């Protein structure tokens, strides 16, 4: 799967006023009506239990300038992943500033997926900035830029 480009996101939640977040590249659009996304969280990570407790998530789709944040939020054992990060609270969820897009999912369904849990999130709010997104391909970060459209291509 290293040969498949993936968007890089930071999935966040808030429990008892404490922010939690983790880098996730297993993320995709699922449905337009209702608007839904899907993502997978590692069952060994702490975030899955926090999301189960909160029942809702924020999704910061990182910009091409935020590879450092992707690494920070993927680092295990870091006592406070949010320390020194430009972030705020949006409708009770941690939101990373400068991201290319933000999604708020107030309804989350959990499905087993091997050593991960698949989350189906119903999107309550979405915003995009228009800046290039961060991608992960062959264990390296890159940038998602618009490709030239050709007749018959997906839109």
From TrEMBL:
<feature type="domain" description="Flavin reductase like">
    <location>
        <begin position="1"/>
        <end position="143"/>
    </location>
</feature>
<keyword id="KW-0560">Oxidoreductase</keyword>
<dbReference type="InterPro" id="IPR012349">
    <property type="entry name" value="Split_barrel_FMN-bd"/>
</dbReference>
<dbReference type="GO" id="GO:0042602">
    <property type="term" value="F:riboflavin reductase (NADPH) activity"/>
</dbReference>
<dbReference type="InterPro" id="IPR002563">
    <property type="entry name" value="Flavin_Rdtase-like_dom"/>
</dbReference>
<comment type="similarity">
    <text>Belongs to the non-flavoprotein flavin reductase family.</text>
</comment>
<dbReference type="GO" id="GO:0010181">
    <property type="term" value="F:FMN binding"/>
</dbReference>
<dbReference type="Pfam" id="PF01613">
    <property type="entry name" value="Flavin_Reduct"/>
</dbReference>
<dbReference type="InterPro" id="IPR050268">
    <property type="entry name" value="NADH-dep_flavin_reductase"/>
</dbReference>
<protein>
    <submittedName>
        <fullName>Flavin reductase</fullName>
    </submittedName>
</protein>
């Amino acid at each position: 799967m290293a040969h498949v480009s993936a968007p890089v996101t930071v999935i966040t939640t808030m429990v008892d006023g404490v922010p939690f977040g983790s880098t996730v590249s297993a993320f995709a659009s699922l449905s337009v009506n209702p608007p839904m996304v899907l993502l997978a969280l590692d069952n060994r990570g702490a975030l899955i239990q926090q999301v189960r407790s909160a029942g809702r998530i924020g999704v910061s789709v990182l910009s091409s300038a935020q590879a450092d944040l992707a690494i920070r939020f993927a680092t295990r054992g870091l006592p406070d992943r949010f320390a020194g990060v430009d972030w705020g609270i949006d409708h009770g969820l941690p939101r990373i500033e400068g991201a290319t897009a933000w999604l708020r999912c107030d309804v989350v369904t959990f499905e087993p997926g091997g050593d991960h849990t698949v989350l189906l999130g119903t999107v309550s709010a979405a915003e995009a900035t228009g800046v290039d997104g961060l991608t992960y391909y062959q264990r390296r970060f890159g940038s998602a830029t618009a490709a030239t459209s050709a007749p018959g291509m997906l839109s």
